[in-house]
Every structure is written in structure tokens, then in C-alpha cells.
Design a protein that fits this description.
This protein is of the alpha+beta class. It has one domain: Anthranilate synthase (4-Layer Sandwich), CATH 3.60.120. The protein is built from 9 helices and 24 strands. Strands 2, 3, 4, 6, 9, 10, 11, 12, 13, 14, 20, 23 and 24 form a 13-stranded mixed beta sheet that branches. Helix 4 packs across helix 9. The radius of gyration is 21 Å and the shape is globular. The two termini are 40 Å apart. The protein binds ligand ISC. The site of the ligand C=C(O[C@H]1C=CC=C(C(=O)O)[C@@H]1O)C(=O)O has 17 residues, from strand 12, strand 16 and strand 24. Residues 163-411 form the Chorismate-utilising enzyme C-terminal domain.
Length: 421
């Protein structure tokens, strides 16, 4: 059942300019921090003015939940009394969201925070959302406690032991070679237990430092730094970054160059990447006047891995919001597969776990339909003192289970290191 924590009947939303500079994360309190930060800019937020939690959905397309969430936010924004002295993407009423990978999993949410601090193109602002006049910005921004270290951790296996996961990859390869499908992205999970509640801000600070070019996010306990931009929408312009095809980074420059050259020359990775680009094009075209996608991927190098990457741009048809695009794109072949229905069925059958919000859309949307959404990768779901980490790999006919396990370990490093004091 959909559950809603409603805002006041006519919430007051006030956006005022702030002096820019100094890093967004320093504003965050320890309790349920929300964040979307890329290259030092973005939004951080806290408190809860309103929330919608969506149930598991039977709709085979899995898109009704996005429509329901968008309609709820539009209704809230229409009832709000908005005073917006900045008027830019991300000002006025904004909701943060995290959707489950599989529509059959419950737990997709949109949260409208009480306080949002934003920064973009050298401008900064503060938005308050509530039923009364909020305190002075100086007062709101001076209440934080220091970030806490994570402390000692106990690690345990997730749904499948590494050998069992390799066997699942081998099953996927056999199904693909048998012609049932062309690609499936298979994931695994692992757990870390701390001795006390994990301070998500500590993880965010480490992620922002280690992966400044990624999209560092925190929504309802889902914390990570994803390199994969599902969509950024500003007015009628949309951008997306497709990733698929991975190598580790080398120990030495020569080693690194060799791995990069190998990735760029690999027919197996080119195939894996092409499926992801094709699925983006197919999903975006009905919503766009024009879609521009380069013919060849380029290399994206992160601290832990390197990917084949294709940036796409589109001019959207009038009225298409960020969540419309998210609904159309999810699940991309980078996290689902090709064809999507067969891949999602195989994932349900052999992965042995519920992905929750891993590999689902995560991001924010404002009342004008602008927003930024990534795919929740290189992330962990934090629940109290427990972190559930996830990583997955695109599997095609030429995939080797042992290599894929090593690749998933390289991807898990992002959150393993963020959790390590
Ligand atoms: C599914 C994940 O990565 C995807 C994104 C980029 C490259 C991928 C790959 O090469 O397999 C994956 O498709 C993950 O990080 O958990």
C-alpha cells in the first residue's frame, strides 16, 4: 500500500541566496542526511516535510510508481506557497528519491526535506519547507555535530558465496549462449556490521574526496558514489552517461595503459556497451525531438576501475519531466540486460536476493520537472549499524565467471574503502 506522510495543507517554501563556497557536506546533521553532490556542487538536505513510500507493483513495465510519485509531488507543489528568490534548477520545492530496481520490490520513496542547501555555477541557496516561518539561515546552518568515524567492522557474505555467484554467472553465460537473451547484469551483496550506528556523512565525505567526478548520493540510507548518470534535465535539455565495459586500474602507468587499450579494443566489452547504448536510444527517442549519441565510447577512468562511457544528449518534447525520462530509461542494459524482460526474469531467478534500491534510480526532482538521477551503483544501504554493499557486472556470451567476480570486487572497493577509518 502507498503510504504518505503529508506536508502541511499549504506548506511554505522559501528559497534565499547564500554566500557560495566552503563545501556542501559541512552543513549536514547526522540524522538522515540527504545528498547529491558532483564536482563540489549539488544539493544537501535534511529533515522531512513530506514523504511517499510506494508499494511493490505488478505493472510489468514498472512505470506506474514513477507516475504516482510525480503526481504526489506535483500536488504538493501546487498547494505550496513558494517564495523563490533564486529561481534555478533545484530551488523551490524539491524531492529526493530512491526507487527499487525491481518494481516487485517495495520501498521506493520520494522525500521532501525540511531544509535544502544547494550550490551550482558559483551560486548557493537555502530552501526551507514547512508550515511556519523558518529560523534565520545562520541559525539553521550552525547546528551540526562533528562526523563520527565508523569504527571496527565485522564482514559477512551476502546471498551467495563467491563460488556460488560464479556458478550463477556461468548459468547466465550458458543461457545467453543458448540464445535465451543477449546480456544480463548480475549482482551480489555483502554485509558490514559496525559496533554503533553508521554516520552516513562520514561515508559521503570520503566518497566525495575519492570520487569527485562521480555523483555522491544519500537518500533514505542508500549511500554511494555512482559514475552512471541516468539523466540530468534542465528545461528541454537532457543529458545521460551510459557505462558498460570495465577493467581495473593498473598498478603502474604501463599496466594501466595496457588495461585501457585492452578495454577499448575488446569486442566482448564493445558488445556489452552497445546493448546499453541501444537501450538508452530506444527509451529516449519517444520522449525527445532529437537525440545525439556519439558512435564510439570513450574511456572513463575512476580511482578503482575504468569504463567504456558514452555521453548522450537530447532535446526533450515539451512537458517531459526528469521522472518521465527515468521511467522510460529504467532499467538500462547496464543494470538489467537485453532484452530487458528476459534479463529481469533471469536476475530474479538466479541472483538469489532482492536488490532493494541497488541499481535503481536515485536523485532529485524539483517542481519544474528539472532534476538529476543516477543509477544507484557503488553503494550500500545503511540501516543503523549495518551496511549492505552491492556490486554487479554485465554478463554476455564471452564473460568469464572468475574475471567477473574480480570485477565485482573492484566495484565493491568503493564502499569498502568509504567504510574504513
Ligand atoms: C552494475 C554495475 O556496474 C554497471 C555499470 C558500469 C559498468 C558495468 C560493467 O562493465 O559490467 C555495469 O554494467 C555495478 O557497479 O554494480
Amino acid at each position: 500500500m502507498t503510504t504518505v506522510r503529508e506536508a502541511a495543507p499549504h506548506p511554505t517554501v522559501r528559497t534565499v541566496p547564500l554566500r557560495a563556497g566552503g563545501g556542501l557536506l559541512r552543513h549536514l546533521p547526522a540524522d538522515a542526511p540527504m545528498a547529491w553532490v558532483h564536482e563540489g556542487e549539488g544539493l544537501v538536505a535534511w529533515g522531512e516535510a513530506a514523504r511517499i513510500t510506494l508499494p511493490a507493483e505488478d505493472d510489468p513495465g514498472g512505470v506506474a510508481r514513477f507516475g504516482e510519485a510525480a503526481a504526489w509531488l506535483a500536488d504538493l507543489a501546487a498547494r505550496a506557497e513558494v517564495h523563490d528568490a533564486v529561481d534555478a534548477p533545484g530551488t523551490g520545492p524539491v524531492a529526493f528519491g530512491a526507487f527499487t530496481f525491481d518494481p516487485r520490490s517495495a520501498g521506493s520513496v520520494l522525500v521532501v526535506p525540511r531544509v535544502i542547501v544547494g550550490s551550482r555555477d558559483g551560486r548557493a541557496w537555502l530552501t526551507t519547507i514547512g508550515d511556519r516561518a523558518e529560523a534565520h539561515p545562520g541559525e539553521i546552518l550552525s547546528r551540526v555535530t562533528p562526523m563520527r568515524p565508523v569504527g571496527p567492522l565485522t564482514w559477512s557474505e551476502g546471498a551467495l558465496e563467491p563460488k556460488e555467484w560464479e556458478a550463477a554467472v556461468a548459468t547466465a553465460v550458458a543461457r545467453i549462449r543458448g540464445g535465451a537473451l543477449a546480456k544480463a547484469a548480475l549482482a551480489r551483496d555483502t554485509f558490514a556490521d559496525a559496533e554503533r550506528g553508521i554516520d552516513a556523512r562520514t561515508l559521503l565525505a570520503r566518497l566525495v574526496r575519492a570520487y569527485p567526478g562521480c555523483y555522491t548520493f544519500s537518500v533514505d540510507g542508500m549511500v554511494g558514489a555512482t559514475p552512471e548518470l541516468l539523466v540530468r534535465r534542465e528545461g528541454d535539455r537532457a543529458a545521460s552517461l551510459v557505462l558498460a565495459g570495465t577493467r581495473p586500474r593498473g598498478e603502474t602507468q604501463d599496466d594501466d595503459d595496457m588495461l585501457a587499450a585492452d578495454l577499448l579494443a575488446s569486442t566482448k566489452d564493445a558488445e556489452e556497451h552497445r546493448y546499453a547504448v541501444d537501450s538508452l536510444r530506444e527509451a529516449l527517442e519517444p520522449l525527445a525531438e532529437e537525440v545525439e549519441i556519439p558512435d564510439r565510447p570513450r574511456l572513463l577512468q575512476l580511482a578503482n576501475v575504468q569504463h567504456l562511457a558514452t555521453p548522450a544528449r537530447a532535446t526533450l518534447l515539451p512537458g517531459a519531466t526528469t521522472l518521465d525520462v527515468v521511467a522510460a530509461l529504467h532499467p538500462t542494459a547496464a543494470v538489467g540486460g537485453t532484452p530487458t524482460p528476459a534479463a529481469v526474469e533471469l536476475i530474479r531467478e538466479i541472483e538469489g536476493m532482492d536488490r532493494g534500491r541497488y541499481a535503481g534510480p536515485v536523485g532529485w526532482i524539483d517542481a519544474a520537472g528539472n532534476g538529476e538521477w543516477g543509477i544507484a551503483l557503488r553503494c550500500a544501504q545503511i540501516t543503523g549499524s549495518r551496511a549492505r554493499l552491492f556490486a554487479g557486472c554485465g554478463i554476455v556470451a564471452g564473460s568469464d565467471p572468475e574475471t567477473e567476480l574480480a570485477e565485482s570486487e573492484a566495484k565493491l572497493r568503493v564502499m569498502r574503502e568509504a567504510l574504513a577509518d
